[in-house]
Amino acid sequence: MQYTSAGLTDRGRKRSANEDAFAISAENGIYVVCDGMGGAAAGEVASSLAVEEVLKHFNARTAEMTPSQAAEQAVREANDSIYTHAQRNSKLNGMGTTLVAMVTEENHAWILNVGDSRCYRLRAGNLEQITVDHSLVDEQVRSGRMKPDEAKRSPLRNVITRALGTQSSVTPDIFPLDTEPGDLFLLCSDGLTRELADDLLASMLANDIPIGQLCERLVGAANNAGGQDNITCIVIRAQG
Known about the structure:
Blueprint: E1 2-10, E2 20-25, E3 30-37, H1 42-59, H2 67-88, E4 96-105, E5 108-114, E6 118-123, E7 126-129, H3 136-142, H4 148-153, E8 173-178, E9 184-188, H5 190-193, H6 198-205, H7 211-224, E10 231-239
Antiparallel strand pairs: 1-10, 2-3, 3-4, 4-5, 5-8, 6-7, 6-9, 9-10
Helix pairs in contact: 1-2
């Protein structure tokens, strides 16, 4: 199985800075999107550190480690780095970042996430959200204490229950998948998903256009819908 990919990040229309970051290491089969949080420039520091550390540790893995083990260890190392930086610099206190990552090997993939950045898979026209948001409102929806429409309007919708760097340790969710030719994966920050509903995402991802152009259309559509937050996406296509 071969994979082609493209990514794009944009400040959006309302924010003065971009606290998102992403990285693609196609030769090593790893793709990462992070959405930073924290005062001043702390969010930018956290997200940039996260993508840098995850790629560094994953790409330096030993032969004995499976891709899933290497990715999980890389996420833990990134958490340690962000947490240590915040402890050493009071200006960075409380910084953190979400993370969604995809690791590929032949016709296998592993999705990792911490926070509310997401992974979707489009297969045969059907869009599926692979990851589960680590957010207060999403947990209330899953427990039946809040309806989805209420969650979208809730003033607590920005409250994240799990993030990199805010605690001394973190455990990412890991979703193992088998990939098929034609599968299309979308990794994105919530600046995209807050503006574009799943049915619109599905119709846009179904367009048979170069994936770099597809990233541009997704970001443009999110900006046209309001662009309230930073917007980042990576699109990955599996090809036989």
